[in-house]
Amino acid sequence: NEYTHKPHVAFLASPGMGHITPLYELAVSLVTQHSFQVSFLVITTASTLAQSEYLNSNPHPELHIVDLPPADMSGLVSDDMTAVARLCIIVQESIRPLRSIISGFKGPKLKALVIDIFCTGVFEVCNDLSIPVYSFFTASAVLFTFSLYLPVLDREVEGEFMDLPGPVKVPGCNPIRIHDLPDVQARNRNMDHDYQWYLFHVSRLNMATGIFVNTWDDLEPVSLKAVKHEPFFLNVPTPPVYPIGPLIKQIDPVVTKYEKEIIAWLDKQPKDSVLYVAFGSGGTLTSEQLAELAWGLELSQQRFIMVVRKPNDNVAAAFFNVGCEPDDPRTYLPDGFMERTKGVGLVVSSWAPQVAMLSHPSTGAFLSYCGWNSTLESVKHGVPMIGWPMYAEQRMNATILSNEVGVAVKMPVVGDKGETVVVQRDEIKRVVQMVMEGEEGTNIRSRVKELEASGRATLSRGGSSYETLARVAESWKLG
Ligand code: UDP
To answer: SUPFAM superfamilies of this UniProt entry (predicted)?
Structure first.
């Protein structure tokens, strides 16, 4: 694609659809609504099929995809490494040539570089090159405020956070139950590489010129109020915070035969009748839990589409190989399950066109792991949720969605001591029926429809998220 004279910003996202999607959608908004051109830097190491299909569907001539050269990772990462540490090392190695890549850009000098939370290693180079860096925090505002507070907690708390006597109270925010803290934050923090990496990056957040968050007031009023107008959140100078959500994948290309079959199946089902079940780009259930889930769905007698992966005891086992070859789910689902549920249920292996499914009129609810992008996709399409958190900050998300926002019912996957418990088939059947047919389902459905309308309004001209981005874009043009 040819560069033009339009104002130019660059983006850098760490691997994983959860980071790439919101940054890419922000880039699209800048190109289509605010007359920018964007260079979108892609870390090609650990790139997945899902990622390249999504980026290659790029229909915007002013959005230039720039592949970073693959980094030499020999001896640096291994399959038994934890996900965040591995991701951070890949980013660290991949951005080594950043200075020469940015300096070699054709087109006008960059007005800004937008990064996600795991790319804070760019600050020094951009400082040298006088390019302001904006961070896009792609998860919830609840996790954002907690993350700003984490360096304080880290200094003040001795021992593990999970042994704290009461909830974590981030100033101005609702208390967070200890059980809802992300696993890596709660346990073994001095030993845990994921925790140390996360702390490193969030400690550097205030080096950014501004921070975008993928949320809006009606969804997370309390956390946003705490940071939005506070130049000194927690007595530390904090960059301005810009809520610009909900930015979700606009186009979900349904191209393969396999994807078309899923949508064709949905086309044949009655309105709001199908429960969509999925555990995200990385989530995997244990064999025992997967069997109970399958039985629970069967007993509920509801229509469903379930995305399954080979069971694994590591909850985020699939993070680095999503979108790979589908396998045969018969080998790990209960005997005869697929035959008995034929017509009522559809089992999809590995990866599904989620946004296309959530926007389909037949989809009535989403049994969701509560990843933030998935949550926004569900809310934006008016689909109520059953919260089944798996890893990262998903427990926090599930709690706010059910207790504060009122768009989800939680599946009881967390035990009294914060441990993950195996939910039994009868319980699954009960919750599924309650949401698909019961009064609780009606309530959360009407609440999510209100938020769907609010999400549309905030992104339209005159709406808060639209105008917030417009103001930043204007300041870049003048800068
Ligand atoms: N996704 C998808 N198909 C799948 C699983 C995930 O299209 O089978 C997409 C989903 O729509 C979302 C992203 O991948 O945009 C996952 O991001 P999220 O923040 O929900 O969770 P993560 O998987 O990154 O923890």
So the answer is: UDP-Glycosyltransferase/glycogen phosphorylase
